[in-house]
Amino acid sequence: MLNLNDIMETITMIQEENLDIRTITMGISLLDCAHSDIDISCEKVYNKIYEKAKDLVKTGEYIEKKYGIPIVNKRVSVTPISMLVAVSGGDPVKYALTLDKVAKDIGINFIGGYSALVQKGFSAGDKELIASIPRALSLTDMVCSSVNIGSTKAGINMDAVALMGRIVRESAKLTQDKQCIGAAKLVVFCNAPEDNPFMAGAFHGVGEPDVVLNVGVSGPGVVRAALAKLPDDAPLNEVAELIKKTAFKITRMGQLVGSEASKMLNVPFGIIDLSLAPTPAIGDSVAHILEEIGLEQCGAHGTTAALAMLNDAVKKGGVMASSSVGGLSGAFIPVSEDAGMIAAARDGVLSIEKLEAMTAVCSVGLDMIVVPGDTTSETISAIIADEAAIGMVNSKTTAVRLIPAIGVEDGSELDFGGLLGSGPIMKVNTKSPSKMISRGGRIPAPLQSLKN
């Protein structure tokens, strides 16, 4: 029996509290598209993606109308393209242009997988693809890129870390006439998950099915609204319990949409990623949840503890609601995409150092952070290494998405528009890590990697 109160509560969540399905992402394996001729391989890539995903947008729109649930993004993730480059050789940017064309032809928002997995070293195709990333992102609109440079099992590939510092800078430089957007479409990972539906880090892992449908659900505004009804003296265990129950309700909605879309597309249902992914919209902020818990402003002392509780409660609520919770599930803290984070950064309350501490307990890492345009590639590499170390030692996913504001004066902001929002330029420690970065080599895997 449907309960009228539950129906009205869901309607309120959608209309007033920014509850949405953030994305339905179809993962597509391109392993059978590999060919020694890059032009033939690109043709096979286009044809397979088009065939499998041509009805994705139409299906999402139908479900939106049927249930009244907003589905903000329809996306595709593919096998890391470096694997195809290993077979075909040639200019990897041909693959990027193919991905961009098919993404536009089927009407999706983004396509992820212009990626390489180099946590333990470079294999055929990896260096070629990584070197092409800045050019690929400058010549395309829909393509997103990611590189996994470390893992708990493998340690950290410091040669790749040094290389990615240069790649991030070059990606921003080649798109400085577009708010340095290239760097905003590039993520550097440690412990990258194979089933993540969120961009820019989504790719289709080699252990995944040939085609699969993953769903990303988001509802920071719903959690904040629920907490606003608690008395100010409610103990924190009650706060955590309410977050858990709210996450349960949000996840059930994702399960419904995912199952429905899976049947309509005749594609296996993969996972629900229950991540509190904020937007610049007022009331749709993870920072404001932390402030509702009891902080004067996000970044104050106590922020890391509040975020740890939030992240844990979200995961517990999701697991109660579905046996298919995966991806990154938890809380995201992308600065430019979160109205509360933006305000805290502008006020100088939130620093990169505090954000780094917060990443030890959230679901991802240093995300959508604008740094000064003169930040050196070695400093960017060192920030990546710090973040990867947190992920490696704690057996969790961490990531870095920095945008050097090349050609922009300090004190200004970059404005990406849409879900990517805008961000103030945040101060970076200018003491040089270049000697450490230039050493290269590999930081060995930690003791906790020996779990067999």
Secondary-structure map:
Elements lengths: L3 H13 L3 E9 L9 H16 L2 H12 L3 E8 L3 H7 L4 H14 L3 E8 L8 H14 L3 E9 L3 E3 H17 L6 H4 L1 E5 L20 E8 L1 H9 L7 H30 L3 E8 L9 H8 L9 H19 L8 E2 L7 H8 L5 H8 L6 E7 L4 H18 L3 E8 L7 E3 L6 E3 L9 H6 L2 E2 L9
Parallel strand pairs: 1-2, 2-3, 3-4, 4-6, 7-8, 8-9, 10-11
Antiparallel strand pairs: 1-7, 4-5, 5-14, 6-11, 12-13
Describe the model.
The protein is globular, with a radius of gyration of 21 Å. α3 crosses α10 and α12 runs parallel beside α14. It contains 16 helices and 14 strands. It is α/β, with parallel strands linked by helices and 452 residues long. The strands form two sheets. Strands 1, 2, 3, 4, 5, 6, 7, 8, 9, 10, 11 and 14 form a twelve-stranded mixed β-sheet that branches. A two-stranded antiparallel ribbon has the order 12-13. The protein has two domains: 166 residues, Anaerobic Ribonucleotide-triphosphate Reductase Large Chain (Alpha-Beta Barrel), CATH 3.20.70.20; 223 residues, Anaerobic Ribonucleotide-triphosphate Reductase Large Chain, CATH 3.20.70.
In a nutshell, what does this entry contain?
With 452 residues, the protein is α/β, with parallel strands linked by helices. It has helices at residues 4-16, 38-53, 56-67, 82-88, 93-106, 126-139, 158-174, 181-184, 220-228, 236-265, 286-293, 303-321, 339-346, 352-359, 377-394, 434-439; strands at 20-28, 71-78, 110-117, 143-151, 155-157, 186-190, 211-218, 269-276, 330-331, 366-372, 398-405, 413-415, 422-424, 442-443.
